[in-house]
Design goal:
about 325 residues, alpha+beta, Beta-Lactamase, five-stranded antiparallel sheet, rod-shaped
Length: about 325
Amino acid sequence: MPKPFPGVKPRDADSSLRDAPIACHELDGEGNVVWINPAGCRLLGLAANQILTRPIWEFVAPGERDASRLAVQRKLSAELPLAVFERTYTRPDGSTLVLEIHEQYRRRANGSLLGIRSFMLDITARKQAEEELRKVSEGLESRIRERTQELELAIDFVRREMDERRAAEKEHRKLEAQVQYSQRMESMGVLAGGVAHKCNNLLTTILGFASLADAEVSHGSRAQEHLEQIIAAAGSAAELTQQMLAYSWMFRRWWKGPPGCWNPWSAGRPRSRSNLPPTCRKSRPMPASFARSWSTWRTMPPRRWASARARLRSAPA
């Protein structure tokens, strides 16, 4: 025990704590309150005679009462060390207080355990501020999570939109390449179709007049052999013209032909002699054998044209 200062008379512990601004009380070996200072009475909102001789856990909030009783009993039996802790107390008006409690043992002169002395600090305002801060923090965290989710959704939407845009641009480039290829093929087809039409017009004249001449010359003459060579060569050229027209995008339109047009590859007699070349209109009428020859040559390869012409020559006009 510390020595008193010279000239200062030592005071009793109860008298030194009676006027202290900090709430203080003492417990006996059973956990009952045997002494409390005025600050403790003001803190609990009760008079001293309403507190003394009662167990301290009766002033604790109902939810913590059993835990408080068990802790006091274990501390008095030295099973639990003394440490700073927090406990919720209730006042007669129904309000609650959160107290920070500091404890120390009370011992007799021989060192035996007499009880516990407790100092209580009101930290209700601090706890309320911490609770408000916790709520604000939780609110901020919730808003941050919501905002983060919104940003993630927006980023995901932008990513999907960019992927769709890239896919659309890729498809657009693919279609542009196809269109350009189609345009090139169309240009080549138009060119091939134009050349084929020109060649077809020339071959029509050659085949027409050669066939008319072949029908007029005598059989076995040298002129007939020359005409057969001309017709054979024109037939080979006609096959090439057909291939060019098949390649051309105009082939189908040419194959059908406009109304009244004389198509040399179609079967049957021409609809009118006005479609013939001017020199043909002035010559004699076209024999039926010549008209029938068009349907035969349309499906017959050139190598068989000589025998076909021989049969057509023997047919009646």
